[in-house]
Predict the structure.
Amino acid sequence: MTLVLAHRGARRQAPENTIPAFARAMELGADGVELDVHRTRDGALVVRHDADGPPGVWAELTLDAIRAGEPDVPVLAEVLDVCAGKLVNIEIKNSPRDLDWDPDASAADLVVECIAARGGSDTVLVSSFNLATVDRVRLLSAEVPTALLTFSGDPLAALVTAETHGHGALHPFVGQLAGRNAGALVQRAHERGIHVNVWTVNEPDDIVRLAAAGVDGICTDVPDVALSALGR
């Protein structure tokens, strides 16, 4: 069965990366959610897509300071509580283009610590576009599943990279899997024991096509549409 993951929660029905968006995704019957995390100055993990907001750059502020400006910003543990029993894809944001770029990938340490502190009770998958970041997660904990995110280029080459670095999943952009690319990639990935989860898939025709190609999951802004397209 192809899993349906709500991209930043049910973001068409509630503000993205907020507790209401994740709760709504659960109500709609999504198999899980995808979210983005950034570190704060005092070691919290805030769930937001961008590296900054009205108060400033998250990495330069304490959680209290951030919530003084944006009180609805959740931390990772709060979202894990809301999504208990479902898959939570935690994307660690860490790019040289980001205002909080961290070459040491310290957010990876914080994510692994958060997961461990909860006693392994959560179903998680940690991903990043930054290979060194997911490599860091693998180094810290072989038990935490990891995935490499890609946006462009040859997905088959990215699959080789994911396999070489020991990651259990590849997350290509939907635009990389046009035509016959999807079936070929999925077949090679599954032969190597690697899952393929595609983002961001919103059109019913694409959802049906990718499910037929055997992808393991789709990340979508419209989980209700995806579930309907898949006959669920």
